[in-house]
Each structure stands twice: as C-alpha cells, then as structure tokens.
Give the backbone structure.
Amino acid sequence: MNAWAVPGYTESLELGAGASGRVVLAVHHETGVPVAVKYLSESLRTRPGFVHGFRAEARLLGGLESPHVAGLYEYVEGPDGAAIVMELVDGVPLRALLAREGPLGPEAALTILKGSLLGLADAHRIGVVHRDYKPENVLVTPDGSSKLVDFGIAADSGARAGVAGTPAYMAPEQWTGAPASPSADVYAATATFFECLTGHKPYSGDNLAELALQHVDAPVPADEVPETVRELVLRGLAKDPAGRPVHAEAFVSDLEAAAGAAYGPDWEERGRGRLAALVALLPLLLPSSRGTPRSVTDTARTVLGRASGHAPARAWLPGRAGLLVAAVAVLLGILLAYGARHAPAAGSQPTAQSLATTSARPGVTPRGSTAPTPSAHPSPSSSSPTASPSLSPTPSPTPEVTDSGVPSTPVTTDPAEPPASGGTTPGSPSPSTPAAPPVKSVTVSALRQTGSATATATLDITTEGTGPVSVTVTWSTSDAAGTPGASDGASQTFERDGATHYTITVDHTFANSGCYWTVRATTTPAAAGGPASQQLLTRRCEIR
C-alpha cells in the first residue's frame, strides 16, 4: 500500500476500498474538520488515462453545487500519489439498508428516489451524467435524507465514453456505448427505486449476455410494484430513451404528483422517518461511530494503539501497560504543545494551509487571506460551476462492473475555530522548508454566476516541485467588457505545498454593482505564463 498521505491531514481509519483506490477518514489539522480522502490506487497512478479521469472527477465535483451530492474540499496531486478530499457524509449506504431490510415500503422508496433525482438533476444542469447510479452510491443519513456519491465514471452529456457502469442498473443504450445521456441516469435511478420497492433488481440474468438482453428486450416487470407507482416505473424503465423523462428534474414533478395523490401531503415526512429508523438500526456503519478523530492528539493515541478490524464500541479500560502508554502520550503532547507555542515562526513547517475553498462555513478563514469574503454557501462543501471535462474510462468490450472507485463515504460537521495567524510568510520558506518550486501555470478553468450577487471560480495550479506556493485571488466589477474595473473587496491568499497540482474553488459575494465580473489569480513564485483571469457578463445585464 502506498504510504503517501495528503499533507495537512491526519488519517485514522479506512472507510472502504476497491479496484481503483480507497477512502480513509481524516481530520484537517488547522480546522479539525473531519473529511473523507479518496486515494487513487498505486497500480493506476502510473497510467495517465486513470490519473486524468481522477483529476477530472475532482474538477467535476468542484463545479457541482448541490445539497444532495457529497461536496469537494480540494484535490491534491504529487509525484507519489493523488487524492480527492471530500465532505464526509455521516450516512449508511442504501445497499446496507436493502440487505438488512429488503423492501423499504413505497413512501421510503419514493423519498430515496426524489433525493436521488434532485442530486442527478443538479449534475444534469451543468451537463454531467453520473453513469453509475446504484444503491452503493447512495448514502442515507440519520435524519432520513440522502446524498449521491462517486462520480468516478461520470461523463459530459453527449460524450461517447465507452461501455461502463454496473450491469444490473445500466440502461439499454448504455450497453452499446451510446453517448452519455441524463435519461440513462433516470433509468438507473428507477431500477434502484424498483429494488427498494420489491427487494430485488428488475432483471437478474445468469450472465452478462443474458442480463443485457433482458435490459434491451424484456418487458418491464411493473406488475411487481404497487399500482400507485406503476406508471413511474414504466416511464423510468422505458426501453427507448425517448419514452423516459429527458432528465431527472422532469421526473421529480411526476413523482411528487403521484406520491401526493396516493399517500397524501405528508408522504415524504413519513418516508424520511422510516429511513431514519432503519439507519438507527445500523449505527456501527456510520463513520461518526467508527472512531472519528476530533483532534491531532486523539489521532496520535489511535496510532499508538491501533488494532486490526473494527471492534464493537465500548469503554477503554487500560491496564498497567496502557496507563504507561497513555502517560507517555500525554507527556509527549504537552512537550509538543509547548514547543509549538514557543518555537520561532521562521522555523515552522508549512502544511496544506486550509480547505481549498472559501465556501467553508463562517468562522473558517483560509490562512493568508487578507479578509474573508462572505460566502454564498453556508455548507463547507465547495461549488464551482464548470462544464465538467469528460471522464471517459478506457473503453472495454464488456461492461465494467464498477466498484468505480471506492464507496465514497463522505459527515457534515461544524469546523473548529480558525487557526491563529502566524507561521511562515508565503514565498519565504524557512531553512527546513523545501524551496519554492517554479510554477508552470495558473488558469481559471471556470467562472460562473451563482446568485444575484455571488459567483464561484475554479483555479488550477501546476508546479514543478512540491515546495510551498501561494495563490492570490482578486475580484473586480466593471460596466465595460475586457476591462477589470474597480476592485471588489480584499484579495484572498491561499498557501499550498506537498503536491504538484492543485485545484482551488473560490466563492465570492460582490458588494459593488457592474455588468461584468472579473476574477484574477496570481502566484508566488510567478507562473511561467503570468497571472490568469476570466470575466463574465452577469445575468442582470443584457447586451442589446
């Protein structure tokens, strides 16, 4: 296993693993925020196509703004590894609920379908098709809501991305390698809805060939579901994509109308209550009950006494040896705390300095930021609306049964108080710090208006080494195209080290008026091609 770890985080335990990587539970040093870190497997890291797809997955998540999808904090890539740092969703996979309970009941199944369709709709809105919707990629939280995860094989709508997906949920056209389409996601979501209602998949061929034929030609087994939702199943599992809703959002209104007519206005509240009760029966599957570290000291104790497997939750009663280890750990913690408090600032070792986004909740300020900009999004997950790049995997003659990464088991918790100011000055590394590397490029890969006075931008920085680099972001407004105009608010500076590629998503709330908004990014050291900037025409202005 690759020993490389994302700088600035302390890991505690593995949440899941698959053919293309693993997901671990970690804590961000400076804020104490628990996160899920998804690592690309060592065997795939040397294959450029998979690295490109992994990088594209991160960029896609950065551009996807949705309360129904696990959000991105940052993407880090270096000579020894690549990782996506995500929101940690404190949820249980829908697959686990189905395995324990079987059929969930119509109201709970409708609630799952609605939440999934809303997450897919947000992806479809920016031109992204998930392509691997299934119970393993839906996490149900303790309050009965759900989030969609794992965009490992997602693709641009209309892109020919090869044959890939999970066979039991693949639309007929997906088996032939047809261009990616939102209606294929609708098919997969409906197949999962069918499984929630009946306890089994719509089709169960003995082999891939038989399963493919069933998806393409076999009648939709709608008579197995309650009559009240039969029409939804027939539409969602239509063989011809033209017979399905064109995208997830169009299906939501049909679902709400059918559910309200059949089960009354409180159907969703009861459905969530049912799901919450089922999650409560599986508490040990929640990341929060599996040893979520709350501080660096707590994590250090976990490392000293690490045990294999997951033991049942119980009180720790140390013996004589345990008391000795605990005493040493406490003493070490005191010495380290004292040393950190009194060590000269010039000698401190910089780490990953903050979440790679300013959309963290109020009170968490990126280190080096001259002044925090009010965020348009209270959630710690970042959002950068970009038409995402194609995530086409290497085409294969038969469907790829994905694991498609790893079960992203991302938990929304309140960040700790912001770190105290101080540390090394950006661009002036200490003798114990690697020299600042040349910056190959800085680009603004996306800029989009997200509200009447808010915008989000995604920045990509590539360096020739892993030493420290700082990125300064400035915003401005103007009434004329092509000119930056007046500065809007104070600039923000982000410090990074430990990798050679960084993706940073920045949100901004504008105080000044102007038909054109501009974002500009500069680096220290300066990028070979100079600063990067991008301008957009706001929706409140029209060019006649």
